[in-house]
Design a protein that fits this description.
170 residues; alpha/beta; six-stranded mixed β-sheet
Amino acid sequence: MKKVLLNVDETKGSKRVLTTFRNVIGHAEEVILLHVAQPEGRTLMTAMLGEPEMSTLKESLKGTEHMEAMDMKAEKILAYYRRELENSGQSNIKIIIRSGSPTDEILKVADEEDIDLMVLGCNGRKWYQKLITGCVAKDVEKMAKIPVLVAKAVGCEKTSFVMEEAYAAR
């Protein structure tokens, strides 16, 4: 595998991303570690923000304590995953931090970086929680032009399209 994008955050699903990467792929020529911060939080409102509104929100948050805290959190998260990958022998790791809609940013980075495979986590939220906050993995899977491997956290509901550990789309 040449270029693999691992979308990571602080959730259980992201830890499964790391495990799935190690067990299924093992090693890639290049790993892109991506963290997408959501300045507006995880709500139904996220889906309602268009590009102009998101741009205005990002601009208004620049230089604020909130944005600095989000950046520090992202750096800690990415440092953890980088260290874990390096400890398992993976070299050539590129770090990318974005803010905005996770689905949009993941797809943009995949396109910009000419990614061969994306690995995303499923966080195990219940259907009613997903109704309110959405499901990034499901949305990316539907819109991606490249294969997507979804790593399940303990608690992810089984549906007809989910295998035991992970499933591949496309």
